[in-house]
């Protein structure tokens, strides 16, 4: 099977590797352009580009595929059977979706039609879902509205998962499913099934401001927020006019505290919430290094009794 692969992050690199390992012919790889990263701000390729280069696969990194006649012609000339898109970070316009005879296959980390859109994993954690899953689907003009090719069995959650680790787990599951799904689509043993639009839910694009803690929320809700937004946008608050990142915390049994109030009890740094309390484990004050909450307390004794987020 002749494939053109579109993807960018490390999760997508795993899917590309699964196709190569299965013996499929990857005619070309498309990924996002190199971006500046690290303290030196040096241009760094995406994990997908790195894997493709190491595997001697031709790689293309256009800034955009919209109204790009040169890339559209190149994609047609590859005469691929199917396109595979995994976390590419760009929307393929309709004229490109119509090129491959088998269509455009995508891995989406939810059990569609639940959690369409850009942040299904984050939203599942925020919603306290007890199980999640992966869908392999065909793309159409809509946002994750195309027909379903296959779905994983429901994956049980412990309630301690963080966003990045759960997303990695789901994409690995999708990558393991991908070769067999493509073969089934090609030989006709898999028939695309339309989604039930009446059961659909839609997620939104994350913004950095989503990570700001509202201390009037419950401790359980803030705990879910911290796990869902790891590593981006993270969770943060303010203290004495400076930003304070809450890098690690856990719900705690404690006497009733006003929302946002910091109290030290039995060597624990506690913060009151709208219901219950959080024990801070690791924090980072703006312009400083990340430290354990107990060490931060020793260096900032006036933190005891402070009110956060004011």
TrEMBL record:
| Name this polypeptide is given | Methionyl-tRNA formyltransferase
Q: Which residues form the Formyl transferase N-terminal domain?
A: 1-182
Q: Which organism is it from?
A: Candidatus Lucifugimonas marina
UniProt xrefs under HAMAP family: Formyl_trans
Offer an example of a GO molecular function term for this protein. methionyl-tRNA formyltransferase activity
Kindly give the Pfam families that the UniProt entry links to this protein.
Answer: Formyl_trans_C, Formyl_trans_N
Q: Does the keyword ATP-binding apply?
A: no
Q: What does this protein do?
A: Attaches a formyl group to the free amino group of methionyl-tRNA(fMet). The formyl group appears to play a dual role in the initiator identity of N-formylmethionyl-tRNA by promoting its recognition by IF2 and preventing the misappropriation of this tRNA by the elongation apparatus.
Classification of source organism: Bacteria, Bacillati, Chloroflexota, Dehalococcoidia, SAR202 cluster
Limits of the Formyl transferase C-terminal domain: 207-300
């Amino acid at each position: 099977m002749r494939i053109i692969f579109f993807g960018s992050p490390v999760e997508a690199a795993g899917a590309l590797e699964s196709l190569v390992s299965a013996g499929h012919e990857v005619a070309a790889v498309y990924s996002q352009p190199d971006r500046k990263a690290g303290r030196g701000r040096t241009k760094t390729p995406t994990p997908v580009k790195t894997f493709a280069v190491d595997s001697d696969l031709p790689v293309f990194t256009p800034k955009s595929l919209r109204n790009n006649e040169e890339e559209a012609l190149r994609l047609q000339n590859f005469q691929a059977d199917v396109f595979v898109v995994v976390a590419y970070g760009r929307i393929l316009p309709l004229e490109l979706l119509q090129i491959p005879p088998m269509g455009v296959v995508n891995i989406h980390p939810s059990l569609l039609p639940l959690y369409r859109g850009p942040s299904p994993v984050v939203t599942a954690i925020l919603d306290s879902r007890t199980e999640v899953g992966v869908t392999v689907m065909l793309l159409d003009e809509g946002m994750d509205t195309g027909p379903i090719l296959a779905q994983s069995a429901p994956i049980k959650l412990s309630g301690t998962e963080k966003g990045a680790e759960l997303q990695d787990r789901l994409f690995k599951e999708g990558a393991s499913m991908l070769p067999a799904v493509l073969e089934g689509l090609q030989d006709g043993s898999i028939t695309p099934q339309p989604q039930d639009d009446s059961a659909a839910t839609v997620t939104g694009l994350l913004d950095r401001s989503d990570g700001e803690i509202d201390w009037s929320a419950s401790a359980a809700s803030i705990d879910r927020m911290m796990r869902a937004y790891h590593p981006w946008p993270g969770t943060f608050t303010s203290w004495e006019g400076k930003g304070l990142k809450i890098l690690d915390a856990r719900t705690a049994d404690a006497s009733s505290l006003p929302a946002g109030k910091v109290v030290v009890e039995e060597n624990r740094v506690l913060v009151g919430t709208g219901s219950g309390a959080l024990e801070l484990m690791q924090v980072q004050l703006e312009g400083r290094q990340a430290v354990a909450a107990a060490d931060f307390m020793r260096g900032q004794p006036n933190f005891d009794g402070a009110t956060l987020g004011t």
